[in-house]
Amino acid sequence: MPCQFHVFIKKISSLILLSCLFVSIASQANNNNEKTKAQNNAKLTDVQQAIAKQESNIFDTNQARSTLELQLKRDDLAIAKAAKAINDTEQNLKATHKKIAKLGKEKQQLSQQKRAQEQLLAKQLRSAYTTGQHDYLKLLLNQDQSEKIQRTISYYQYLNKARIKEIDNFQVTIAALLQVTTEHQEQLSQLKALKKSQQQQKLALSNNKSKRTKTIGALNKQLLTNKQQLVNLKTEEANLTAALQKLEALIRAEIDLIGLSKLKKKLSWPVKGRLLRSFGSRKQGYLKWKGVLLGAPLGRQVRTIHNGTILFSDWLKGYGLLTVIDHGSGYMSLYAHNQTLLKSVGDRVETGEPIALVGQSGGQDQPSLYFEIRHQGKAVNPKLWCNNK
Questions:
Q1: pTM, to two decimals
Q2: What is the pLDDT of residue 355?
Q3: CA-based angle 98:103:107, to the nearest 5?
Q4: Backbone phi, psi, residue 166, to 5°
Q5: Which CATH number is correct for 260-389, 3.30.1360.170, 3.40.50.80, 2.70.70.10, 3.10.560.10?
Q6: Which residue of 273, 277, 365, 382 has the lowest C-beta tally within 10 Å?
């Protein structure tokens, strides 16, 4: 007798626990949905702010890159201009070198001609001197040939004056050549200095271009990173938005559920099978069945009697694998002893949708489904809602 009383107490405790479970699960599910929605909204706000910041960073980076690219264009044009100036200077240097070389040759030729004339003049002067002395003696000894000798001396004098004049002209020309050569040498020095300055300028421009090119490369790399981060953030935003939409749908579904009050005798049984235990029949001692026990083949699909939201989907002592569905307006349905559960807490289910498979969990000796309908936490007879078809 004490043993039977102990079993009775255990059964009563399980029923009380299950009744409390119905109420607490519904309240907890609603609170969890609202809490999760608030958390996701906060996360979404943070992500959207991060997206705005990342887009601002990308805009600023693009602006900086555009400015650098414009400066890079200016550098390229300046380098091109400097390269052209260096090329022009090199051409001028080559031309000046050629002029100096040509002037050097002319100077050498004139110097040679000058020396030749000087040698001829010296020779003629010596000859004239010798001849003059001889002719002078002849003139003294022979007065008859004095006119002839005089003409000869005059001829030599004229020829020598012409040679002296030509030598003077050579001297002037050589002096002019020296002046021009000096000027060209100065020009050559200036061109060399100019070329050196131009090369330094070009090198500085090239260095600036190299620095800007590296900076642009770094900006491009940063842009890729920022864009990838933006893609990731937008993906996270989309996921959060989808999660919020799902939560809002669940919350709306909780509000929209109208219960089972208008569906008496219109619902289908959750599984086709043989009635093993009826509602209200004696279970053990003073205990009575709060639902029905339906015998069915192992693994047969268990379907929800009406649309609703999964409130509980787990193993519970005395019930095995259990699913509880909220149908709204205080109505819930319970499906126990399943082989496996097909839905998770929070899932929205439609009328006739498979939610589990018939099993023997919870210590059953044969495959069966324990099925209850409750209103405001109290068990009601399923036959009042399910038809006999």
A1: 0.42
A2: 98
A3: 150
A4: -65, -40
A5: 2.70.70.10
A6: 365
